[in-house]
């Protein structure tokens, strides 16, 4: 494939991803983050395999960059998911003060 075809696919994927993510209702946000974390873990495995088989130092550095960026995405996804789930937990009420006698 030539560069223009690959660039066109990338741009279309960016637009589709943008509109899919922004049209998700808040109730589905947590399952979407879980799927995103799973995809990022597959990206890490692929980046590790690709960088291990790479012959040039540039490919190894690109593999390292892919691992770092996917790791940031995974940990950020877990943080956002934890925060979203915390919003649905019942808040504890402070204990009522006992009346003075």
From TrEMBL:
A GO term for molecular function:
proton-translocating NAD(P)+ transhydrogenase activity
Q: Which Pfam families match?
A: PNTB_4TM
What catalytic activity is recorded? NAD(+) + NADPH + H(+)(in) = NADH + NADP(+) + H(+)(out)
Provide the NAD(P) transhydrogenase alpha subunit C-terminal domain boundaries.
Answer: 7-90
List keywords of the entry alphabetically.
Answer: Cell inner membrane, Cell membrane, Membrane, NAD, NADP, Translocase, Transmembrane, Transmembrane helix
Q: Name one GO cellular component term.
A: plasma membrane
Record EC number: 7.1.1.1
Record-level GO BP terms: NADPH regeneration
| Cross-referenced InterPro entries | NADP_transhyd_a_C
Membrane topology per the entry is:
Multi-pass membrane protein
UniProt enzyme class? translocase
TM stretches of this protein: 6-25, 32-52, 58-81
Q: Where in the cell is it found?
A: Cell inner membrane
Physiological role: The transhydrogenation between NADH and NADP is coupled to respiration and ATP hydrolysis and functions as a proton pump across the membrane.
Kindly provide the name given to this protein in its UniProt entry: proton-translocating NAD(P)(+) transhydrogenase
């Amino acid at each position: 494939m030539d560069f223009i075809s690959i660039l066109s696919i990338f741009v279309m994927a960016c637009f589709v991803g943008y509109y899919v993510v922004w049209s998700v209702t808040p109730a589905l946000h947590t399952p979407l983050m879980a799927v995103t974390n799973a995809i990022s873990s597959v990206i890490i495995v692929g980046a590790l395999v690709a960088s291990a088989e790479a012959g040039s130092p540039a490919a190894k550095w690109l593999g390292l960059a892919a691992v770092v960026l996917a790791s940031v995405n995974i940990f950020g996804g877990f943080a956002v998911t934890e925060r979203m789930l915390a919003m649905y937990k019942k808040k504890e009420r402070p204990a009522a003060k006992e009346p003075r006698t």
